[in-house]
């Protein structure tokens, strides 16, 4: 009998190889054929078929489906699958796609979605809407949810206060393990997911924390104060999300208490919400260094244009500076055109070496690994790497130039390449460190300055040495 | 009475503003003065003072302290604080710093550290050692730990099998909530931290999962099969860590079961271990795109040199190609030196625009947002952004050139800038997408190719147009 039941239970559980084969490819991305089928059913206006296609998907995959479809199909899809549009789908959606969709939905529909969500997700849903739309949605909510969301919105964006969820378990310290279990069994409105219980004093300040696994392994009579851990990472409510992400990562936290300036417990942050921030913050450096702004493929073209063109114009300015340096040597170039042929090489070597060092420094600064305590050591390390790189690349280009042009020009370009590589190593550490000391994000502006330095030094060292060595005399 | 007790408990709990003031600055980094004090006490050989200084630190901060100290001081510190060298310190250490230190410790000392760790951390401790050292340490371990570590080492690096911990709770499906709680209270060797319980069938295949919070809120008589969730994300044991990190992020997982090819439960992965991978994988793109390899400031200089010089040489090759194109126009340049002065500007604009688009594409590919289903749409989007950028920057440089040189040269440089910006937009999407289709990491090699394309096109379009328009005639 027991065996029969087991087999029945097993039957619907597919073997692992075949799992996810209809909608997802081997890298867990939605298959193009699946997207095409959805697209087709939307174009035919067949809402029933659309629903049947989408229904087996995980909410996170439904969110991906919205992002992969063309903007004009997204509204049609939302209408076809209204009751699959759970809070989980909404919270997994890309910001731009979500805002675009939410703006198109009536306030009552948005409110009914917001009501199913934890505070933090509900806030995310409406925080970027314009004030009138936000007000209309808030008015549809019941007073308790509205108060929670309004209170979250009162904290600045990207702070712990904005991100935290208010739903949590906080109990007084005189309880035993058994009391706590009984308390939780009696409560109807516990948070959906929680991983630890906070023990608070009579002023509602957290004095300890207790992982659920510790509670489950203890006999009922043990006092909570014997199980709980007193040392805990408390997150001040105004802390920036980047800092929050670093704490979660550094201390391997699953959840943490958020406290006000008096140390009173206001809410909690859980790692499933922070994981997105960790990934965003780590991934944005590549985008920032290239001057690509948010760098989101769902960003409207207008926004992408404005954020990128600023940096292109800034770089145009640095390119003009390099041109000034070249123009100072125009007589020399007119005499020896080989200089014009070779000069971009020296600038290019320096640019690449500078970008390498800068990427390393920016990452180390972001991870709090490059601090006042070791800046000098790291600078010296980078100069040594630069000398090795410069010697290698300088020798190669020097030999090639000596063969094609003249030995003297080979010596000049090799020397210029070494000078520029070392300059690049210095600038690649110094520029981001200086921006960091000035409390600026080193990823944002370093690139323009490092390129300017290596371009100018590249042209100046090469052309200047060529003139000094009498090659154009 | 209760109040008195409360106050006593509160006394040692510091107000939040003063917290961490002795060792950590406001950004949670170790203060330079603190590092100096430790450095000084190490130089004086005062092990007692060193111990007293380090003792209040969190293990993650002790790990940071090792990384910030000079390599020759790290051994001295380890000797001074032996009993603070917990598994947590070791697992938080940077790979290079850890390997360097572990190699210096005797096998028995390493074994005694390994024994306190979960399998996954113990594996991390010894996986990079050479086979003889690894063998010596394994021989010191008790047979059970040794078997677990050897089994983990049998999976390739960076797979789920290497990363997973074997310690987990798996129970048969016929238990009730009460049975499970009793079972956990009786067990002595439960894992240190766990967040969910796996329900397995008689072949040890996971059929459901149960968060601890669900267990705690249910009455004892409820069967586990009524509480558990059947749908779960199972991680195949050979899955690559990058893929694992994406699943954790996409489905907001706290832990997940790792299964073999027959679907049998082998171990679990928890988000606190995956968070480091998520951050690493997201952050490495900036390093890879710049050709900075691992880009770790703790990497030995020799390794940093070899990983970077390869890319500098590859870039030298592309710079030489650009030089060939210039040399084809040397007669034109000799006649009109202004061309040499201006040509780097066109290449630079294209290079920047290409890097921006490439950074966006690489990030979108890494996040599985750019797939076959939307490549054409994104390509078209980027071309439109490029046309706007090209028109803006082209107009600016065209006007400036027209004023300083001649109107015709202004038209030529503006046209060349627009052509190169659009080329950059195309290449910035196409190159990473092609590498991705060829199953190569688009972050690694795209940069060299995109720069080559924009450099060559920049010089060719500008010099070619100048000649075609008769400016050098």
TrEMBL record, chains A, B:
Q: Which SMART domains match?
A: CBS, MgtE_N
Where's the CBS domain?
A: 228-284
- Region annotation Disordered: where it falls in the sequence: 1-31
Any transmembrane segments, and where?
Answer: 311-333, 339-365, 386-405, 411-435, 447-468
Bias (Acidic residues) occurs at: 16-25
Question: Where mainly located?
Answer: membrane
- Could you tell me which InterPro entries the record lists for this protein? CBS_dom, CBS_dom_sf, Mg_transptr_MgtE_intracell_dom, MgtE_N_sf, MgtE_transporter, SLC41_membr_dom, SLC41_membr_dom_sf
Membrane topology for this entry? Answer: Multi-pass membrane protein
Q: Where is the protein found, in the record's own terms?
A: Cell membrane; Membrane
Keywords attached to this entry: CBS domain, Cell membrane, Magnesium, Membrane, Metal-binding, Transmembrane, Transmembrane helix, Transport
Name the Gene Ontology molecular function terms of this record.
magnesium ion transmembrane transporter activity; metal ion binding
Question: What's in the GO CC field?
Answer: plasma membrane
Record text on subunit structure and interactions: Homodimer.
Family under the similarity heading: Belongs to the SLC41A transporter family.
* Role description: Acts as a magnesium transporter.
Q: What is this protein called?
A: Magnesium transporter MgtE
Mind giving the lineage of the organism this protein is from? Bacteria, Pseudomonadati, Pseudomonadota, Alphaproteobacteria, Sphingomonadales
């Amino acid at each position: 009998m027991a065996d029969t039941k087991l087999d029945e239970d097993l039957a619907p559980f597919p073997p692992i190889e075949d799992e996810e084969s209809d909608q997802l490819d081997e890298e867990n991305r939605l298959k193009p054929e699946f997207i095409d089928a959805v697209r087709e059913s939307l174009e035919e206006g067949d809402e029933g078929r659309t629903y049947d296609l989408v229904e087996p998907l995980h909410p996170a995959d439904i969110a991906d489906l919205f992002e992969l479809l063309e903007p004009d199909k997204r509204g049609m899809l939302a209408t076809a699958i209204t009751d699959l549009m759970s809070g989980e789908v909404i919270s997994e959606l890309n910001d731009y796609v979500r805002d675009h969709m939410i703006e198109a939905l009536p306030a009552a529909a948005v409110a009914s979605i917001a009501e199913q969500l934890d505070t933090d997700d509900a806030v995310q849903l409406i925080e970027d809407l314009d004030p009138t739309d936000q007000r209309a949605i808030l008015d549809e909510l019941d007073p308790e949810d509205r108060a929670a969301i309004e209170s979250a919105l009162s904290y600045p964006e990207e702070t712990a206060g904005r991100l935290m969820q208010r739903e949590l378990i906080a109990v007084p310290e005189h309880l035993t393990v058994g009391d706590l279990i009984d308390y939780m069994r009696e409560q109807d409105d516990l948070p959906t997911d929680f991983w630890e219980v906070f023990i608070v004093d009579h002023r509602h300040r957290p004095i300890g924390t207790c992982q659920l696994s510790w509670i489950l392994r203890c006999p009922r009579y043990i006092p909570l104060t014997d199980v709980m851990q007193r040392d805990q990472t408390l997150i001040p409510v105004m802390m920036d999300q980047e800092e929050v992400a670093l704490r979660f990562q550094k201390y391997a936290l699953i959840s943490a208490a958020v406290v006000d300036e008096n140390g009173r417990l206001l809410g909690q942050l859980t790692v499933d919400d922070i994981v997105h921030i960790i990934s965003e913050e780590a991934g944005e450096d590549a985008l920032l260094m290239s001057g690509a702004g948010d760098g989101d493929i769902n960003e409207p073209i207008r926004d992408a244009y404005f954020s990128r063109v600023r940096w292109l114009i800034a770089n145009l300015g640095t390119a003009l500076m390099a041109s000034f340096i070249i123009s100072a040597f125009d007589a020399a170039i007119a005499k020896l055109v080989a200089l014009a042929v070779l000069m971009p090489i020296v600038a290019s070597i320096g640019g690449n070496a500078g970008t390498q060092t800068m990427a390393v420094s920016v990452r180390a600064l972001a991870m709090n690994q490059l601090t006042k305590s070791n800046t000098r050591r790291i600078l010296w390390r980078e100069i040594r790497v630069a000398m090795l790189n410069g010697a290698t690349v300088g020798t190669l280009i020097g030999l090639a130039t000596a063969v094609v042009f003249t030995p003297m020009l080979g010596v000049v370009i090799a020397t210029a390449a070494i000078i520029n590589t070392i300059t690049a190593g210095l600038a690649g550490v110094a520029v981001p460190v200086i921006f960091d000391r000035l409390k600026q994000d080193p990823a944002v502006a370093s690139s323009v300055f490092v390129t300017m330095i290596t371009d100018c030094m590249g042209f100046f060292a090469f052309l200047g040495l060529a003139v000094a060595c009498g090659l154009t005399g």
